[in-house]
Every structure is written in structure tokens, then in C-alpha cells.
Amino acid sequence: MDTISIRNEIISLTKRLVATNSITGKEGPCAKTLLNYFKKKSVEARLEEVQPGRYNLVARVPGMKPTLLFNGHTDMVDIVDGWTTTDPFKLETDGDWMLGAGVANMKGSLAAQAVATAVIAASIEHHSQVIFTAVVGECSDLGLGTLTFLKNGGTADFAIVGEPTGLWAQTSHAGTYEARIDFGGAAVHIGDYISGVNAVETASEFVLAVRNTKGLNQGTGVFDETPRAMVGRMSGGFYPQIAAPSASVWVDVRIPIDTTQDDLEIHIDSIASKCSLSDHSSFKRTTLAYEPAYSMSKSGVSFLKRLEEVFGKVTGRTLSTGFATPSNRFFATDAAHLEAAGIPSLVLGPGIWAPGPNERIGIEETCEYARVLVLFAHQMGRYMG
């Protein structure tokens, strides 16, 4: 398939993916869109049920060793106010840009991976075996789809996770821990106020205290500035004149290598305990997710070197390794789960995702990405063959 055809096909498929509101939990239509795409291309593909109505899409292209895995996710975060377009779920193109809900994280990249898989399947040249997974639950469930794929026996020799890195090769990122802490108090009117029974006050003390992460392993090198904690959601109470009998906070902690779930839970519980000293105060922590920090294993280095050669041939540029922006080190991606399963993994994809309205991705960058994946599969097939 020539470059213009790849471009047109990526735009067309991205348009169909953007048209589905696939916030976490509602990814089914996106998976079915991809399944229909591969059926038309005569590529072996199937749906893998993760939960009722939620499916991974798994496509497979037979070929030579090594087996390459292209991994992306169909779920997206919900849209926010401020879009200048009439309908965020209707893809718009403006010069070299595609604009639409979830297009940068990561429906544009997902379309590029799918088109690249179809192009490889149609090729008569030697190429590696390729598995393409479009998984659920990466944004909010932190790897549910990929963990299901691995649990069901999915494997590969090398994985490229297509999260938006601006086409920088990212070989590490921080891990993440998420928890909800429910604080209890006593409903007392302001006229009969007793200190320490207002759960909102207790929760507020926790919000300020949890930012101090000195009790946790401090990251160095690429993990500098970790751990980093933030409470981004809080709720509680019902009337301003009544002390809140309950309040809840949701905390996210980004962590370096060698920080365990036990480390985090002990740390969070210690802070919550110090904020709940009154006889009427209590707390309960519910761990929501844990994903360890990721660093590409040494066995991935040879693949990265081949990828660097391919990237130069396709783009005329040198493949940069590191972080597209400083915040990218705080990504949490499925590369962590793949590495833990023994699959050396690289995070590489077009676009830079920033939460907010008017999400967009460069068309040329997305097309370059697809062409890099195609040539990489051919090069690895010829190299190993």
C-alpha cells in the first residue's frame, strides 16, 4: 500500500473510531469497528471478552520469528467542556491535524497500528509474525485488557505500546497506585460542634498531608521527582452547617522502580491514621489499582537498534530515546504488565496527549508511525530469517 493510501485509510478508520464514545467500560463498539475492518481485509481477528460488553480485539498475522506485538487501547477519558467543534465525536481534519474525542489517546495511533497490521498481512515479502491487540481498561482500570490477554496465554518476543510519545522511544516510566479513602465522622450541627467529628476536615488534612512522600522510596535518574502524590477527587457532607458524617478522597501516587504495593498501602494508612485521631473519626482504604514502574529489559535492546534503523529510513530523522515531555515519565502504560510477563516492551506512538478539549494528532506523524511499524516487521522477518 502506498503512502497516500495509508494516509487515507488511517483517516477513514480514525473517523470511525472517534465516532464511538468509548469511555472506560463502554469499549465494545470500538472493538467491533476494528473487527469489521480486519474482516474486510481478510486478516484473522477475534473478540476476547474481558467483562460483559467489553472486548479486546486480537488480530494475528502469521509470519516468521520473532513475534511482534502492537498494543493499544480502545478506552478513552470522558470529554470535558471547552470544545470548539460542534461534535467532538465527529472527526475533523485541519491541514495536517485530526481533531476529535480520544484521537490522541489513542485512536489515531490505534488506527495506525491496525492499518499497519493489515498492510503487513497483505504483503508477499518475508515479515515477522504480528499480533495486534486493542485492549480495554487502560485509562481507568490500569491494564485490565492487557492482563486478560496475558492471562489467556498471549505472548510475544517484543511489544510496541502505541501511547502518545511524539514518536520518542520511551524505555521507562513511573508506576502508579490508586486508592479511595473513606473517612467517617459524626453529623453534628455547627451550634453543637465537637472538634474532630467533621469527616470533611479529616479528609482535607489527609489531602494536604499525602503530598509529603518522604516516607517512600525516592526515585533517581529518569525516576527523579517520584514519588509524586495527588488527590484529584473528593466528596463528602450534605449541608454546610452540619459536620460531615462521611467524606471520601481518591489519591494517585506515581512511583519509581522497587516501590511495592505493600509500601504504598502502609504509607497511605499511616497518614490516614494520623488524620483520624478523634474517637468519632475512622477511615477505610480501598486499593483501586497498582501498576509497577517500568523499564525495558536488556533483551529489548537489539529490537530497539533495529527500530532505530527503520525509523531513520522512513522519516530521515534519528529516533530519540527518552521522554517527549517531562510529564511523560509519569505515564502508566501496559508496558509495565507486558514487561512483568517477560515481553520486552517499548512505548512509542504519535501525538502528545494533554487532558482537555480539542484533542488532536498530526496526520503525517501518524502515517510515519504506521510505515515504521510495517518496515520494522519486514526488517525483523528478513533479519531473523
Regions with little confidence, pLDDT below 50 for 5+ residues: none
- Gross morphology is elongated
Report the structural category.
alpha+beta
End-to-end CA span: 23 Å
Task: Produce a short descriptive summary.
With 385 residues, the chain is α+β, with helices and mostly antiparallel strands. Helices cover 32% and strands 24% of the residues.
Features:
Aminopeptidase, six-stranded mixed β-sheet, 24% strand, Alpha-Beta Plaits, 385 residues, alpha+beta, four-stranded antiparallel β-sheet
Describe this structure in words.
- This protein has 385 residues and is of the alpha+beta class.
- 32% of the residues lie in helices and 24% in strands.
- It has helices spanning 3-18, 28-40, 103-122, 144-151, 199-209, 261-274, 301-315, 335-340, 363-384; strands at residues 44-51, 54-61, 64-73, 92-94, 97-99, 128-135, 158-161, 172-173, 175-184, 228-236, 246-255, 282-291, 294-295, 345-347, 360-362.
- Helix 3 crosses helix 9 (363-384).
Per-chain topology:
Layout: H1 3-18, H2 28-40, E1 44-51, E2 54-61, E3 64-73, E4 92-94, E5 97-99, H3 103-122, E6 128-135, H4 144-151, E7 158-161, E8 172-173, E9 175-184, H5 199-209, E10 228-236, E11 246-255, H6 261-274, E12 282-291, E13 294-295, H7 301-315, H8 335-340, E14 345-347, E15 360-362, H9 363-384
Parallel strand pairs: 3-6, 3-7, 7-14
Antiparallel strand pairs: 1-2, 2-6, 4-5, 5-15, 8-13, 9-11, 9-12, 10-11
Helix pairs in contact: 1-3, 1-9, 3-9, 7-9
